[in-house]
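FOLDING PROBLEM:
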Amino acid sequence: MPGRGPRPSRATSTFAYGAAVGLAVDLLAGDPRRGHPVAAFGRAAGAVERRLWRDDRGRGALHTALCAGGTVALGALAARAVRDSRPASVALTAASVWAVVGGTTLGREARAIGGALEAGDLEVARERMPHLVGRDPQALDGPAMARAVVESVAENTSDAVVGALFWGAVAGVPGLLGFRAVNTLDAMVGHRSPRHRRFGWASARLDDVAGWPGARLTAVLAAAAGGNPGGAVRAWRQDAGRHPSPNAGPVEASFAGALGVRLGGTLSYGGRVEHRPVLNGAGRAVEVADIDRAVRLSRRVTGLTLAVCVGGRLIADAVSARKRRSA
């Protein structure tokens, strides 16, 4: 009778069960309307910024270290406090996953804008755009808003779901919370405004590093889960490197190829016009119906990410067990 394979480690089973429960809670409930932990972190980080701000990279690096490092330390302390109880560890992981992922709310906001565009109500669509997109909605017509929403769904699939799950698989609760802290800091101070050009440099660079693996995993899974794997890979290889963001480029290009649409081009942030490269130039212009297609692709990528992350941990457990037996 063949023997059973090595059992998954406690850390792996805790992550697997906790992540599955956390994603299920997000699917059923989405983000809370009040008292969201990420919003609380943002207020705390804003208070630290007000105390530390100088037009200086060193002060910005200190701000990043205190906010991101403090969040990682808090996650480590919480995980340590419940490590002797498997149910409590799973519950903490589930709560952390629910707190840091935002796939359901991302889809709801995207579809709400899509519904307004479908009804021809551009003003309602513009009112909802700031919930999802940082660019100036008054500068966008209907097709431009649809394109912006698809781009945001693609980028936030990486930032709000895949990246967090990847670091959760690598480092547990501290990884989950730390990634979300870094990503939030980049959104707060990482942009190139006059106030944050130097102060936000460290947050922006750290977000580039932390987001690198999740962005590539998102691009791979979008190609696998979309309707045109060859087109997704081709767009990624040809166009991603021309995007100003090292992480958004692969994700948006892969989504564009998978959906068969063109992304990128001219956009406006707070009155500042940017001319970004076109991604998947062979594709057609984005239509309102593509918003729902992008959301469905995002959900498939989320499910595959959980499977890949758990599978990766199981492989690591098997390799570790083999090394112990051969030692």
Notes: The first strand starts at residue 263 and ends at 269. The chain is about 70% helix and 5% strand.
